[in-house]
Write a structure and sequence with these properties.
GO molecular function, one term: ATP binding
Keywords: ATP-binding, DNA damage, DNA repair, Hydrolase, Nucleotide-binding, Nucleus
Organism: Crucibulum laeve
Mean pLDDT: 82
Number of helices: 10
Low-confidence stretches: 65-80, 327-332
Subcellular location: Nucleus
Number of strands: 13
Radius of gyration: 20 Å
Oligomer: single chain
Strand content: 15-25%
CATH class of the largest domain: Alpha Beta
Helix content: 25-40%
Main location: nucleus
Largest sheet: 9 strands, mixed
CATH architecture of the largest domain: 3-Layer(aba) Sandwich
Length: 332
């Protein structure tokens, strides 16, 4: 039943179009969609329509009826999935033990923090068990040679570990948007891919200056592609991003220095390009060359407003001596 097309639910045309636009094609996709409230916000349709969608999926179930409250996440109906470690115990704890297939993780932080290292660690965890990866470098931060060396120096890697990683370099924002348009067909041609890394994605939005409308259009395209990849293909997505200064008032609303606002560091792209119902957002705050604090900004079940307190965990870098590539790369 889970692999059945959404067309079989007999949904109103507007609801079906909204679902397919954001990558929801089967009933299985809906099982990881998040709560009805989150899906309503994402699809921009009334919450009453989302309730009808979930009710339709329950009617089709051939199993003994177990009615879940409609305020409960639909993901609760899915089976537990394997966790992939970031190889930072504190970050793994913020993620509930690691990142799962079909989830999205944004790692943000200032220059010098180990956000790229977290991405490489996740890549290593996937490749270690034979999973296929697409690594997209948006700022010439990580070369194919570096990735190859890390994999070769990591114990217990499969003999074909290098071949499991497809490396792509994107240098301009139009190239990124074109990549997003082509992502569904790319994943269809490489169905074994389970991890997509977009390294330094925020760098491409620095130039040229974009109008708010154009910027929002690009975010919408990226969110649609990432939602479809994670929901339809069960692909895990990891992005890394720089920080930017935002002026906020004491109540968390946007402000200016004239209104008594203070400058705070936030992820440069904000959250508009990420589907809230399946995304973790973490900021790394370095306190020294090898240690700092990881802060959870948001998760599929938690969306914080600016100024609210959040869960934090310490992290520390302890490079094993055999990972010389990591030592050289992250000291830069």
């Amino acid at each position: 039943m889970a692999s059945r097309s959404l067309i079989s639910l007999g949904l109103p045309k507007a609801s079906l179009v909204a679902l397919t636009t954001y990558g929801y094609e089967t009933i299985q996709d809906l099982l990881t969609a998040g709560s009805p409230e989150e899906l309503s916000t994402q699809l921009k349709i009334p919450i009453s329509e989302v309730h009808k969608i979930f009710a339709s999926t329950q009617k089709l179930s051939a199993a003994p009826a177990v009615t879940l409250p409609l305020t409960q996440s639909a993901a609760a109906m899915a089976q537990p999935t394997q966790k992939f470690s970031t190889r930072f115990s504190g970050i793994d704890q913020l993620l509930g033990g690691g990142i799962s297939l079909g989830q999205i993780l944004e790692i943000s932080g200032p220059p010098g923090c180990p956000k790229e290292r977290v991405a490489i660690n996740i890549l290593t965890s996937f490749v270690e068990v034979g999973e296929h990866v697409i690594f997209v470098d948006c700022q010439n931060m990580t070369s194919p040679a570096t990735i190859s060396q890390v994999l070769k120096e990591t114990p217990n890697m499969p003999h074909n570990c290098i071949q499991l990683v497809r490396y792509t370099k994107i240098q301009t924002l139009p190239e990124l948007i074109m990549f997003m348009y082509k992502l569904p067909s790319l994943l269809a041609s490489q169905p074994k891919t389970t991890l997509l890394i977009l390294n330094s994605i925020s760098f491409l939005f620095q130039f040229p200056r974009l109008s708010i409308a154009t910027r929002n259009d690009h975010f919408e395209r990226i969110m649609q592609s990432l939602t479809k990849a994670s929901a339809s293909r069960n692909v895990t997505v990891v992005t890394t991003s720089q920080l930017a200064t935002k002026v906020l008032n004491a109540d968390g609303s946007p402000g200016t220095f004239d209104t008594g606002g203070i400058g705070v560091m936030v992820p440069q792209l904000g959250s508009a390009y990420l589907p809230t119902g399946r995304t973790y957002r973490i900021i790394l705050c370095p306190e020294g060359p090898t240690s700092g604090t990881a802060k959870l900004l948001a998760s599929p079940s938690l969306q914080l407003k600016p100024g609210q307190t959040t869960e934090r965990q310490p992290y520390s870098i302890a490079s094993p001596s055999h990972l010389s590539a990591l030592s050289d790369f992250y000291s830069a």
